[in-house]
Amino acid sequence: MEKEIAKNKTVEEKMALADEISRGYFRQGLNCTECVLRTFMDMYDVELPEDILCMATGFGGGIGHTKNICGAITGAVMALGTVKGRRNPFGPKEEMGARIQHLQGDIYPVFGKMVNEIEDKYGTLICREMSQPFGDFDSKPRKKNCMEIIAYCAQLAVKYAES
């Protein structure tokens, strides 16, 4: 599951690595969602093609730069989904109840805990609200704040992948 870069490391070391890698991607111009997903792809063998990253692009800036749900949070959910998500949600109709029970009882709670931890830290999941105290969206303080959020979300994706 892990790539060489993350092997033989503690969860805390992996979280620190995710922090470092995600910040580097932000400095290179990747958007918030791309940073978190790409970091995760660097650390884990997600068995998905590299160009899957293009699916993350539109979520940046709070989905298409509308400043709605934070793109870093979306990136964390996408990243976690690569290892905790269902590989085949289809199955015989008679097994649908069991599939739904597994989804609601085992899968959703992991994602929900991660998102709740983010909301507890920031008081919101909305990009606009997270960015507002830093003034102009193009300002350096806002960008620095976003880099902190990106790093935190990358760390949590790793934390919950390891749980």
UniProtKB/TrEMBL annotation:
Pfam families in UniProt: C_GCAxxG_C_C
Domain of life: Bacteria
Protein name: C_GCAxxG_C_C family probable redox protein
Species the sequence originates in: Frisingicoccus caecimuris
